[in-house]
Design brief:
Blueprint (H helix, E strand, L loop, with lengths): L3 H15 L5 E2 L2 H13 L10 H17 L4 H8 L3 H20 L1 E2 L1 H6 L9 E3 L6 H10 L1 E3 L8 E7 L2 H18 L5 E4 L7 H12 L15 E3 L3 E2 L4 H12 L4 E2 H9 L7 H17 L3 E2 L1 H14 L6 H13 L5 E3 H14 L10 H18 L2 H4 L1 E3 H14 L1 E2 L8 E4 L9 E6 L19 H6 L7 H18 E9 L18 E3 L7 H8 L23 H9 L1 H8 L15 H19 L2 H6 L2 H20 L6 H22 L5 E15 L2 E13 L4 E7 L16 H6 L6 E9 L4 E7 L20 H21 L17 H4 L3 H9 L1
Parallel strand pairs: 1-2, 3-4, 5-16, 5-17, 6-14, 6-15, 7-14, 15-16, 20-21
Antiparallel strand pairs: 8-13, 9-10, 11-12, 18-19, 19-20, 21-22
Helix pairs in contact: 2-3, 2-5, 2-18, 8-9, 10-18, 11-12, 12-13, 13-14, 14-15, 15-16, 22-23, 22-29, 24-26, 26-27
């Protein structure tokens, strides 16, 4: 049994082998490209927002003209009355002109004037036949009457939800398969394309539950969903197209990350692990965007630095990139295709022995598509690599593909059609008064009056009604059991059954099964709930992560365990230019050099504007150069950052001039160790100032927002208290130095007035009489946090603001109410 249009195509191809003078029949991709060129060359082509939609509409209109044998004089009468028809006629004229110039014809022309039958033809009557095809079949073929099934029963079912309707259809099919070995069913679900994923899930649950298991072998399913999906959605094709896209222009880090970690490029789990490790390094050292060759060079350098050895994915991508670079300039599409295939075989298709049957079929269909494009050089002409790849991507996206799974016992379709063959059961869904019979759907670009005159079924409500009545009678005659169903839309309204449904269809009570995941949950045994909030004690072999370990523990015990001991980290993602962390490091480096040169406040007050400008410029240049040794985002960002950093430093020095006289005693000093409980911390102080009377001030630079977050038994950031414990002698203040373009100031805990500004006041010291007493409180507090951490305390108990800066909610499952409350504070 063959589709008429496909049968005509195959016959024309066979005749052309015998007579090369026959015009070439356009393939789907080259026909679409010819239409696109015809539309874009017209006067209104530049104003069309959806060229692909315009191509589909024009092809449908041309096919309608030929299928219904609408004469040119009838079209001419309407041309002056319709702007849309005028546009289509212009596009059609250009399309036909180009076809004649290329000695080609399209499928619509073949249907409109089919050749004589090469042999006996039998056909089954169906309302789907268009007038031109029907007349040809009546003249050349033998009409067969499809087998009828008698007696048959019809029923009508009303569901309260569309999910329940789908689940019931699947259960009905499963019951039929269990009841009879030769049971076959045809199921029609209007709007299937929009619900395809949902339909597949529900039918898998009832008919192929093995697909939800962890086994790699999913096994065959006794059903098939008609229609297919775009070829570009299948993994081998998607990976091939992504590789071609990456070979042109800039590639963002997420794009390259996906390619590097793609399963298609990993020969083993070990290779996948190495690729993931390299991906983490690239997030810290890479830029936001680079060319594919630049990404590969950087990745190979980082792999060597980290001694990762040969990275299989990089080797394969490098070979693919070299294959693509062999050709340059403008070439016929047939010349680009060998380079593309070589690149595919080198990278995304190099491990094809692990493909599933569906992936093999999709790749083979993609090869067929490449062959079709290679045969159309006369149509496409010479193309640059970018334009040639654009043709390929459009062709893959517009080519619908459905894998072959044999002859299934359950057929699921979205088309309202006569299924021809006898079945054990038919189920027609969506039979509401709004959808059955279907609403008129005339062909775009052609006048509706003209379509009605020449019998286009979808052009009028009357013809749709007659068509629906005919189909409905055929459905009832095709199966022992015919079920019509409808479902409420889910917006509070109740669906109304179509009055067209057979009066003999008995109302059947709807026993709606729960969707499969709910059913499994309902039948699951009651489990004992045990809350485990105690991690193993901290061991001598483990290493704490410095001050950040106590900071996380203070905010939430689980966060301390997850970040400091499980190493749960948020993956970095490069941004254009320098990120916030890198800008903070450059501020630290610049201030380190600046105060190493100045030394004290008296020197700051004494230098001239020219000297300060030179010193700031040198400090900024050194800081940027030091950062560029780790990651270089490009010359433009380097210059921009030097200017930004110089401006911030100049304004910051004005803030420092308002302070009481001081000497910078220590700056960026490391090598100091603190010990609490069984934890040792390596501490690095940003800066320690000494006043004229010998008192000391501890400063910590902050380049983002900063507040007094060190207070309370569970401070959000115990950093300053910990730093204060490194050298508590003579300490009278600790402070954040906010060095950023938006806000330059000090946030301090101090026992003296006017330390940081002329009218500044001392702070409350958390109720303690003096700074030494406050330091003693801090010491007890840090000791308690360290003991909790070492004991393995790991309950989910965040402070009010902790969840705002945490990205572990998927791991800790913090209660939604607590999370919402934290977001409101």
């Amino acid at each position: 049994m063959r589709d008429f249009s496909r049968w005509l195509r195959e016959g024309h191809a066979a005749r052309r082998l015998e007579d090369a003078r026959l015009p070439r029949l356009l393939g789907e991709p080259d026909e679409r490209e010819l239409w696109r060129a015809a539309i874009e060359s017209s006067g209104m082509g530049a104003d069309i927002l959806d060229p692909a939609g315009a191509v589909r509409a024009a092809r449908r209109a041309r096919r309608t003209l030929h299928e219904h044998a609408i004469p040119p004089e009838a079209i001419a009468r309407e041309a002056a009355l319709s702007e849309e028809l005028g546009a289509f006629l212009e596009w059609n004229r250009v399309f036909e002109q180009r076809c004649r110039g290329l000695d080609c014809i399209d499928a619509a022309e073949l249907i409109g004037a089919p050749p004589a039958a090469p042999g006996p033809v039998a056909w089954i009557d169906t309302p789907a036949w268009r007038p031109a095809a029907r007349r040809w079949l009546e003249r050349h073929g033998k009409r067969l009457e499809p087998a009828m099934v008698a007696p048959s029963t019809a029923g009508r079912v009303h569901f309260t939800s569309q999910a329940g309707e789908l689940a019931s259809i699947a259960e009905w099919a499963a019951k039929g398969l269990r009841a009879a070995e030769r049971f076959r069913a045809w199921i029609c679900i209007p709007g299937l394309e929009q619900r395809r994923a949902e339909v597949v899930d529900v039918f898998d649950a009832a008919l192929a539950p093995q697909r939800f298991g962890l086994s790699a072998a999913s096994g065959a399913a006794p059903y098939a969903v008609a229609g297919g999906v775009p070829l570009s959605d299948f993994a081998p094709v998607r990976a091939a197209l992504e590789l071609l896209d990456a070979s042109l222009g800039g590639v963002s880090l997420p794009q390259f990350s996906r390619m590097l970690r793609a399963p298609e490029l990993q020969a083993s789990d070990a290779e996948a692990g190495v690729a993931a490790t390299l991906d983490i390094e690239l997030r810290a050292r890479g830029s936001a965007e680079a060319g594919l060759a630049e990404w590969l060079t950087l990745a190979e350098r980082l792999a060597g630095t980290r001694e990762l050895g040969a990275v299989g994915a990089l080797t394969r991508l490098g070979a693919a990139q070299r294959a693509l670079e062999e050709l340059r300039g403008s070439r016929p599409v047939s010349r680009w295709i060998p380079a593309w295939i070589a690149a595919f075989d080198a990278a995304p298709w190099s491990l094809r022995e692990r493909w599933s049957s569906v992936e093999y079929q999709a790749a083979e269909r993609f090869r067929e598509l490449l062959a079709e494009l290679a045969a159309a050089d006369a149509i496409f002409g010479s193309q640059s690599r970018r334009s040639a790849q654009g043709i390929l991507r459009r062709a893959a996206a517009e080519t619908v593909f459905q894998e072959q799974t044999g002859v299934p016992r359950i057929a699921v379709s979205g088309q309202l059609m006569d299924p021809f063959l006898p079945y054990g059961g038919l189920w027609i869904a969506g039979c509401t008064e709004e959808r059955w019979p279907p609403r008129p759907d005339p062909t775009p670009l052609l006048p509706v009056r003209l379509q009605r005159e020449f019998g286009v079924l979808a052009a009028s409500a009357d013809s749709q009604l007659r068509h629906a009545e005919d189909l409905q009678a055929r459905w009832v005659a095709r199966a022992h059991e015919c079920v019509f169903s409808l479902a409420d839309p889910g917006d509070g309204r109740s669906a109304t059954p179509s009055p067209l449904l057979p009066r003999a269809a008995a109302e059947v009570a709807a026993a709606e099964p729960e969707p499969h995941w709910h059913a499994l949950r309902a039948s699951a045994p009651v489990l004992e709930r045990i809350v485990d909030e105690r991690a193993p004690p901290f061991s001598a072999e483990e290493r704490a992560r410095g001050v950040t370990a106590l900071q996380a523990q203070s905010r939430c015990a689980f966060r301390g365990f997850a970040e400091a001991r499980l190493r749960c980290e948020r993956l970095e993602r490069p941004v254009p230019g320098f990120n916030d962390r890198e800008r903070g490091e450059m501020v630290h480096h610049a201030l380190e050099h600046l105060w190493s040169e100045l030394g004290d406040s008296s020197r700051l007050h004494a230098i001239t504007d020219e000297q300060q400008s030179a010193l700031i410029g040198e400090s900024a240049a050194r800081a940027v150069a030091r950062q560029l040794r780790k990651r270089d985002p490009g010359q433009r960002w380097k210059q921009r950052e030097r200017e930004r950093l110089s401006s911030v430093l100049a304004r910051w020095l004005d803030v420092e001039r308002r302070r009481l006289p001081f000497t910078v005693e220590r700056i960026e000093q490391g090598g100091r160790v603190l010990r609490f409980a069984d934890l040792e911390f390596d501490v690095r102080l940003d800066r320690m100032d000494r006043l004229e009377d010998g008192a000391r001030i501890l400063l910590d630079y902050k380049t983002g927002s900063a507040a007094a977050d060190w207070r309370g038994d569970r401070p959000d950031n115990p950093q300053l208290p910990l730093y204060a414990l490194v050298q508590p002698s003579s300490l009278v203040a600790v402070a954040y130095a906010k060095v950023n373009a938006a806000d330059l100031d000090f946030v301090a805990e101090t026992e003296r007035d006017a330390l940081f500004r002329p009218n500044g006041r001392k702070s409350r010291l958390e109720g303690e009489p003096d700074f030494p007493s406050l330091i003693a409180v801090w010491e007890r507090r840090m000791e308690a946090l360290a003991r909790e951490f070492c004991a393995g305390r790991a309950e989910v108990a965040p402070t009010l603001s902790a969840c705002k800066t945490c990205r572990l909610q998927g791991l800790c499952r913090v209660p939604a109410a607590l999370e919402d409350g934290a977001a409101d504070d």
